[in-house]
Amino acid sequence: MTTAFVSPDIRFKPGARQPDGPAFWPRLLRGDVFRQNAADFLEANARQFGDLVHFETLGIRVLQFNHPTLVQEMLVRDAPHHHRNMVMQRSKMVLGEGLLTSEEPLHMRQRRMAAPAFHRQRIAAYGEVITHFTRQMTSQWQDGATVDVHAEMLLLALRIVGKTLFDTNVEQEVGKIAAAVEAFMGFMPLAFLPFPDLMVKLPLPAMRRIRDGRAGLDELIYRMIRERRADPADRGDLLSMLLAAVDEEAPTKAPAAKMTDQQVRDECLTVLLAGHETTANALSFALRLLAGHPEIQEQLAAESYDVLGDRLATAEDYTRLNMAEKVFAEALRLYPPVWVTARTAAETYEYRGISIARGTILVAPQYAVHRDPRWWPNPDRFDPERFTAAAKAARPRGAYFPFGAGNRQCIGEGLAWMEGVLALATIARHWQLLPLQGGMGPIPIAPSISLRPQGAVPLQVRRRALH
Ligand code: HEM
Questions:
Q1: Residue 296 domain-assigned?
Q2: CB 62 within 8 A of CB 54
Q3: Rounded distance, CA 209 to CA 205, Å?
Q4: Domain termination site, one of 347, 373, 401
Q5: Model confidence over 19-47: pLDDT tens digits?
Q6: Ligand 1 atom having least distance to the Cα of 366
Q7: Looking at CB atoms within 10 Å, which of 43, 83, 311, 426 has the fewest?
Q8: Which pTM does this prediction carry?
């Protein structure tokens, strides 16, 4: 039977008149709800129910888009019908009206003003910051020691974002930021629950830590803003750019065309959170995958040796570090730090012959689409050769979207690639990564606000000879 929403290349459950999907109560009774993590649940839906899946969980209606064409339609074409999702809306109470949480038209204005801070030349200048901090970190490693690379990558990404955002590399300051960010991250799981604004006020130690984390970050950021306003010389960091940014399209070039302190604070906090854990998780997964695939690791080490010799990598090396780029791309495919992109329908609208009701949650799951065997044969295999220019051109748009798409596509994407590629090349040039005893099974994942490895990622590190 064909229905209005079926088109030849798009797969629906045979015979369905409406998108079909899993029923909540049987899943609850069987205990699946507790056994399966959310990323695996969405992947199982895609395999079982096809390219458009509908399900309801405790009264919340969800529509899941699993085909590249549908993903593009949801994220790009139909974006004007959507709002930010519930988690982002609730996060406003801590992130304010930054790029991640704000709605149009404020979002476009802020995006225009923040864009120069992420321009190619600006990112190129951060290349040396990335390799400097990577070398500094790995020079502390002991030959043959076991290192929790996830903890290391979190600290590395924080140091890099601390330097590129605030031009700070004062160890004490970085330590303070790390502690405050960690406490603050405790808020994010609350955003999935009702009334997070009330919960965070509860007199519990966990809530106090979150409040203290927020207060600490606010104090730090406002102090830096005050110092910079007093001495507005360009320090080459994102904060200088945000403070100097002028909205060229504003009706007047009066003060309203610049960001207020509160807006600069919101954007700084947003970039700090959006740019730190995502990149650290991607690097941790990449290193763990390399440890399990020695032949690929050797190819990467050989490339790093050929391109870098004994010097530090710079942004100019990026285009020659092809293997590093392919490894990072493949890690982002298998373990996308943003594992699902969600929106809320702001109005009721027609979509391929069905009616999407206002309030429906729309999800495009990177984790499931990146593992669809139609675009990714043998999807669980780690194979960086999927990212040669020819292979990339042969795949449909929307089959790979670790950085999202459309008007909310990641503004830090260029910086993330630079960080991933230069850090991987720098590490592989000097260190060999080995799995611990017991081999390397699939990597246990913990999908929360981002997709992170479950627990520590301990690997043995061996120093490579400098030739
Ligand atoms: C591997 C690393 C990263 C991944 C996988 C990633 C992924 C994403 C994705 C998928 C979105 C879109 C979310 C949506 O559509 O709802 C996004 C947005 C965003 N990202 Fe990233 N990101 C990464 C690194 C960074 C970095 C390094 C920065 C900044 C330094 C950054 C800043 C942002 C901001 C500000 C937004 C909001 C953009 C907007 O709505 O206009 N991200 N990121």
A1: yes
A2: yes
A3: 6
A4: 401
A5: 888 887 777 778 777 777 899 999 999 99
A6: 10
A7: 311
A8: 0.92
